[in-house]
Specification:
Number of helices: 8
Bound molecules: protoporphyrin IX containing FE
Helix content: 55-70%
Oligomer: single chain
Distance between the termini: 34 Å
Number of strands: 0
Order of helices and strands: HHHHHHHH
Radius of gyration: 14 Å
Length: about 130
């Protein structure tokens, strides 16, 4: 499994920019549709166009692809941009739940889906620790 962490292997496995954007679209689609997602959806202000772009560009760099987030939006600290939000275990787990639901719609190997969920749980937990409780 560790090969996903090297170079841009994860970015490739995710289907590069088109694949990441598709995943993020589905992620927010799940958040908007699933009853469980309503609470964290309501933490987002207004329409989701900008946040979809931001999350896609961020994840592309995070997966070892081009660093397009900083080119377009500047530098970012993931825990810091969530600091003003109230994020407890429930919000963290719902975010991951929506991501897991979105992954079911992607043409990725089971191994890569599992790897992604394990890796995303790390910043999600860090966000919870730094955000308001
Ligand atoms: C732990 C559960 C999480 C919740 C409840 C959550 C919720 C949110 C919300 C509500 C916003 C919009 C904030 C605003 O505009 O005021 C946001 C922004 C963002 N989130 Fe999360 N998030 C979570 C985890 C993550 C994770 C794990 C990542 C990345 C791996 C991530 C990446 C981002 C990015 C890139 C932005 C845009 C920041 C910006 O440029 O302004 N989030 N998140």
């Amino acid at each position: 499994m560790s090969q996903f962490g090297t170079m841009n292997a994860s970015y490739e496995a995710a289907g590069e920019e088109a694949g990441v954007r598709k995943l993020v679209d589905e992620f927010y689609q799940q958040m908007e549709t699933l009853p469980e997602g309503q609470h964290i959806r309501s933490m987002h202000k207004g329409n989701l166009t900008t946040i979809k772009d931001k999350l896609s560009l961020f994840l592309m760099g995070w997966l070892g692809g081009p660093r397009m987030y900083s080119d377009k939006y500047g530098s970012i600290s993931i825990p810091q941009v969530h600091q003003h939000l109230v994020i407890n275990e429930a919000e963290r787990d719902t975010w991951l739940f929506c991501m897991n639901a979105a992954l079911k719609h992607q043409d990725y190997t089971e191994e890569f889906k599992q790897y992604l969920m394990q890796q995303l749980a790390i910043p999600a937990e860090r966000i919870r620790q730094m955000a308001q409780s």
